[in-house]
Amino acid sequence: MAELKFIGGYPTYMREFIDVVNSTRSKRKDYTPPAMSPEAREKILNTYHPDYAPGGKRKISIGQNKGDIGPKEVVDLLEAYPLVEPGEIDLSHIDYDVDILIIGGGLAGTSAALLANDSGIPADKILLTNKLRHGDSNSTMAEGGTQSADRPGDSPVMHFIDTIGGGHYANKPEVVKALVEDAPFIMQWLLELGAMIDRESNGDFSERLAGGFSRKRLHYCRDYTGLEELRVIRDEFRNKGIGCIEYFPVIELLTDGEGRVTGAVLFNFETEEYKIVRAKATILSTGGFGRLHIRGFPTTNHYGATADGIVLAYRVSAKLRDTDTVQYHPTGAAYPQQIVGLLLTEKLRGAGAQPINKDGEAFVYPLEPRDVEASALIKECYVREKGIITPTGMRGVWLDTPLIELKNGEGTIEKEFPGMMRMFNRFDIDMRKDPVLVFPTLHYQNGGVETDLECKTNVEGLFVAGEVSGGVHGKNRLMGNSTLDCLVFGRRAGIYSAEYVKSVKNNRKLTMRHVKKYINMLKKARIKPERRAPILLPEYRGRAVLARMIDIF
Amino acid sequence: MKTKKKSVKTKKSMKTEKKSIMARIAESTKSVTTGVEEKDIKHWLTIYIMGKAYKVPAVLTIMQAMEYAGYKFLRSCGCRAGFCGACSTVYRKKGEYRLQTAMACQTRVEDGMYLVQIPFAPAEKVTYDIDKEDYSASVFLKYYPEIARCVSCNTCTKACPQDLEVMDYVQASLKGDFSSVAEDSFDCIQCGLCAIRCPAEIVHYNLAQLGRRMYGKYGMPEPEHLKKRLGEIKSAKFEKELRKLVNTRRKELEKIYTGRDMEKE
Ligand SMILES: Cc1cc2nc3c(=O)[nH]c(=O)nc-3n(C[C@H](O)[C@H](O)[C@H](O)COP(=O)(O)OP(=O)(O)OC[C@H]3O[C@@H](n4cnc5c(N)ncnc54)[C@H](O)[C@@H]3O)c2cc1C
Ligand code: FES
Fold this sequence. Notes:
The complex is a heterodimer.
Chain A: E1 6-7, E2 10-11, H1 12-28, H2 38-48, E3 57-59, E4 69-71, H3 72-78, E5 96-103, H4 107-118, E6 126-129, H5 138-141, E7 146-147, H6 156-166, H7 173-193, E8 207-208, E9 218-219, H8 225-239, E10 243-245, E11 250-255, E12 261-267, E13 274-284, H9 308-315, E14 320-321, E15 327-333, H10 347-350, E16 354-356, H11 370-382, E17 388-389, E18 395-400, H12 402-408, H13 412-416, H14 418-425, E19 436-444, E20 448-450, E21 462-464, E22 469-470, H15 481-501, H16 513-524, H17 543-547
Parallel strand pairs in A: 5-6, 5-13, 6-10, 13-21, 20-22
Antiparallel strand pairs in A: 1-2, 3-4, 7-9, 8-9, 11-12, 12-13, 14-20, 15-19, 16-18, 17-18, 18-19
Helix pairs in contact in A: 2-11, 4-8, 4-15, 6-7, 7-15
Chain B: H1 2-28, E1 44-49, E2 52-57, H2 62-68, E3 88-93, E4 100-103, E5 113-117, H3 139-143, H4 155-159, H5 166-174, H6 178-185, H7 193-197, H8 204-219, H9 224-234, H10 239-246, H11 250-258
Parallel strand pairs in B: 1-5
Antiparallel strand pairs in B: 1-2, 3-4, 3-5
Bound molecules: flavin-adenine dinucleotide (FAD) and FE2/S2 (inorganic) cluster.
């Protein structure tokens, strides 16, 4: 690495490969490789997708989903001891006594709070608690957009078909129906709240294609869609004065001892004290698990995406589903080192960018469903050996972004992808002129806690919405369906929990009996007591420091 | 007998091949902070975290470098990708007079950086009812009268890690120009560095939030096709077909899915 010379952010040896990409671009302008047949898709998935490659998973040995399989990293956390044991804390002093407790303020949790309030729950009877700041979440990072079938040539029926096919027919159909029917109402809601969704000059929404979709129905706000959606609903949340605390993760749910969820234990990150919440209903909206780095993959996810939600829910006997699949996004950054794993939105391919190998060839249809596209990239790099190797040894293929300008006119990238352009500019790369290097990255938790149309679970008092839930996306989520999922089911969780609360008396007990039971199960299964969860944050400190750390305070 | 043996063999070799791909991927994507031995790191530099010197690998961001040095973030770390504004950082390089700002997750470490993070910006946010607010030029001064104190020093613009023309949109707000406030501030990640640096004590990013919502609600044209679709759904136009699909078996769904027509780019 020592003597590498850089031109426009790339070392000279990578420049030579870029010249090859440049030389084939004009030929590729009007050529797109054909989409794969269902059989070809099946084959490439089975051979190269990290979910199907052996060695990454094992059986869950205790609890509701005993016998199901999941990624080892996730099962490890399900089979882990609590951070505090029953008896170690005082449950008799209640710090917050509310109607609705919401855990995690991404799009799902924040929408739930607003709709609960709209449905008659007073602002001071709702508490939203956040592990980090309100909004430090996967939601803020959604670049690409949100799906909604609202153009004349499109319909919720087609949205349904695309979603269920993309999910390999494992989705819960009635939940998908709600998703596609609510979608246009979500767009209306966002407009009423003042979200700046990109428009054509006549006022029509600008809409694009995305992987696995048969119609253009991806709505976006430049490439800051999640940021815009979240900051708008969060601003409304603040206008309403709804209760909110930050740097206060939930470390355990509480039950009445008879299976109902009645509250939670909070932990103040800074003072390390605990607080007790009693709630008539609890909405779990803690997002996903990218920071578990399943199979060693880098991730697109935010710092707090550590699977806390499924761990907490599993301990109160909530049922999970589709635990066996994980979404790898085909195009994470593979270069430069500083941003490895960060997302290059699929919308780039929707706007015409193609994956290109080191010979300058377009080797795959750019908008296959994500799992198929990711498998094709892995094959290209590790089997066909047609990837580029970075100075730190990572492999990737090019994403030919200058093609976007060629197809849509100069200035398109600056206008529609300012976030992406800024990210690469910070490392001296101009993606309008040069392609960028990509490789699949860990992106999304496909499965999760099973819910119904009202976001209820098999556990009374526990509602679930957003990425932590399972069923909407089956075994593979399509782009733009997740922010939609969070908005649709976040709102529903708010509405139906508000309705549920009316039937609940506020004298329910707070116990950790379920935790005691869980510990007994763990012991019986001979699980070692060292493993504890939820982990709350990933560990990124340097090895050398950790080896010399002493615990004094 | 013969065929059986053969099939066993191919199965086995397939397995080892797959395994090795995953192992090779994991090997090549090892994090420099947590996965690489010190002896394998060639390039180092020195940074000063709140004055203390630390030797860190040169290929890291400020955020990763602080972690390498042993800091576990509780605050000042959110998305790790330049979207949330949690990781505001102020630094000065050895021998330079300039005080600079950056997002720690999106900035390379440089030798001789003296840095500190700003995990929180104390700032006022007004509350308002967007449904009752008039779309009138005076709304900015009504809620954020301190904008009148702007001395056009441009410090906010210089502080902005997103390189937005912050002062320009504050000036536009004084004129009640919604579209400029909204468009110019659109890429704001609300990190708060502008507000921390402003001598006039303006809270630019909250002002901009108000402007964007007002513009989004009242200033942008309405999509007619959306209204039409809402009407169709309310009148249950798709209900029957959707109901049918909900009850359709997988084999049939597969046929419908693979046979559907695709819109072109
Ligand atoms: C980089 C990126 C790009 C994406 N792009 C798109 C896109 O273009 N379109 C699309 O539809 N989807 C996209 N997605 C997916 C989508 O953004 C997310 O799946 C979705 O926003 C998740 O929302 P959520 O509300 O369920 O969870 P989150 O937004 O992740 O919010 C969960 C919150 O809960 C907090 N939390 C976690 N544990 C605890 C705890 N123990 N106690 C308290 N709080 C806790 C977290 O810190 C976080 O703030 C993208 C995701 C990423 C990461
Ligand atoms: S951590 Fe979100 S912007 Fe840096």
